[in-house]
Amino acid sequence: MAAYRVVLRKSEEGYSVSCPGLPGCWSQGATREQALANIQAAIREYAEAGVLLTRSPAPSLPARA
Questions:
Q1: Among residues 8, 4, 10, which one has the least CA distance to residue 18?
Q2: What is the pLDDT of residues 26-60, one digit of tens each?
């Protein structure tokens, strides 16, 4: 898996973390370690969704008469 830069921010609720290279990819956690583990999972899921979206489209249904 490729390496991605993440931005970690402390808040009153814990930590928020985003991945600027992957728009909309963000997570959070009560601790720094939890937030970083969560963003790793989010990045994996983001990449898996991208693979699914780039696969051949499903066959189209026949036109209705």
A1: 8
A2: 999 999 999 999 999 999 999 988 766 666 555 55
Q: Percent helix, strand, coil in the chain (nearest 5)? A: 35, 20, 45
Q: What are phi and psi of 15, to 5 degrees?
A: -135, 140
**Cα-based distances in Å from 54 to 1, 20, 49, 51:** 17, 21, 9, 5
Q: What's the confidence (pLDDT) of residue 53?
A: 63
Task: Show the tokens assigned to 64.
Answer: 């209705």
**Core vs surface per residue 23-47: b (16+ CB within 10 A) or e:** eebbbbbeeeeebeebbbebbeebe
Q: What is the pLDDT of residue 26?
A: 95
pLDDT of the residue at 61: 59
